[in-house]
Amino acid sequence: MTILSGPDCTTMTEVRAGVDALDRELVALLARRFAYMDAAARIKPERGHVRDEARKTQVIENARAEAARLGLPDAAIADLWEGLVEASIAYELAAFDRR
Fold first, then answer.
1. Of 53, 59, 60, 94, which has the fewest CB atoms closer than 10 Å, so is most exposed?
2. pTM of the model
3. 8 Å CB contact between 37 and 87
4. Was 33 annotated as part of a binding site?
């Protein structure tokens, strides 16, 4: 089945196929992002350096600004990024502990 862009979909089957394909791409991108968390855990000298609230705020604000630029609900994107950053911190802490 050919995956159509959102505006080209005319059936829910097409919409669902597009969403499922995009979700697979998003998970692949998240795998790339988490590979950076592995690198951070390897590079940081101490476990206490994993959580960086200033950087967390910056990352969330960057996502919020990009969402607003694209006409997306920036508060919802900021909430998603809050969860993503917290999951990334937990992942990095576990990676640090495995070192």
1. 53
2. 0.90
3. no
4. yes
Assigned domain for 2 exists: no
pLDDT band at 61 (very low <50, low <70, confident <90, very high): very high
**Any idea what the CATH number is for the domain that residue 89 is in?**
1.20.59.10
Cβ distance 50 to 44 under 8 Å?
Answer: yes
The residue with greater pLDDT, 73 or 99, is: 73
pLDDT tens, position by position, 25-42: 999 999 999 999 999 999
Q: Residue 68 and residue 60: Cα distance in Å, rounded?
A: 12
What letter represents residue 24's amino acid? R
24 is in an annotated binding site: no
Question: Is 56 known to sit in a ligand binding site?
Answer: no
Q: Is residue 87, in this structure, part of any structural domain at all?
A: yes
Q: In this structure, is residue 51 part of a structural domain? A: yes
